[in-house]
Amino acid sequence: MVHLASYAIQSLEASYAFFDKGDEKYFDKVEKHETAVNSIDEELTTYLIEISNELLSVYENEILASVLDSVRDLERIGDLAVASANLSQHIHNKGIEFSGTAKAELEDVYNRTHRIDLDSIRVVVDDDKVLAGQVILRHEELKKLEKQLRMIHTKRLNNGECTVQAGINYVDYLSYYTRIADYAINLVEKVTEGVI
User: What is the extent of the structural domain holding 117?
Assistant: First the structure.
């Protein structure tokens, strides 16, 4: 599962690098990591389903269900990284430009999401309840920031400081990053509930 998480996070990193730099080599990395994510997801899911056919205790069944959920969450992080890279490819091909302010805001959201993802895996590996609490608080801050940025962005659009196309894409990126953080926080919550 940690191996799967590593590829999903590397896909996210390459996806953001592609958005930021526009170099196709990062898009290729996203595709390569997605192949690895899908392969590990398939093997891990098959293995877990085989285990589910064994005689398991109630607690073992809870853990199994929780790990299956976590595998799904990690696979979705990979999918959203791919969606973000595809959006970046569209933006680069169409020559759509973001304002410096919009780019800085997206960089901040990405960095917060990336940190949440990395720390979520640390929570799982180390069974770190203290870090879990900190990550949950940072996730709540990210959700508040997303709402603020959406409002600020609407004002920019209304003032003509941003094109409609860039505006729609900005909101898409915000949505991708915050959803990625949502999936990562699911892992943390499973640790705090003692089912992973």
Answer: 2-192
Is the pLDDT reported for residue 121 higher than 90? yes
pLDDT of residue 176: 98
* Whole-model pTM over 0.90: yes
Q: In this structure, which long-range contacts are made by residues 45-53, counting pairs with CB atoms below 8 Å and at least 24 apart in sequence?
A: 45/71
Compute the CA torsion angle 94, 34, 15, 175 (nearest 10 deg).
Answer: 80
pLDDT in tens, 30-63: 999 999 999 999 999 999 999 998 899 999 999 9
DSSP states of the chain: -HHHHHHHHHHHHHHHHHHHH--HHHHHHHHHHHHHHHHHHHHHHHHHHHHHTS---HHHHHHHHHHHHHHHHHHHHHHHHHHHHHHHHHHHHHT----HHHHHHHHHHHHHHHHHHHHHHHHHHHT-HHHHHHHHHHHHHHHHHHHHHHHHHHHHHHTTSS-HHHHHHHHHHHHHHHHHHHHHHHHHHHHHTT--
Tell me: pLDDT of 196 over 90: no
- Which CATH number do you get for residue 181? 1.20.58.220
- Which of 109, 87, 75 is closest to 7 using CA atoms? 75
User: What span, in angstroms and rounded, lies between the C-alpha atoms of 131 and 129?
Assistant: 6
Say which residue the tokens 């709540």 belong to: 140
Per the structure, how many domains does the chain have? 1
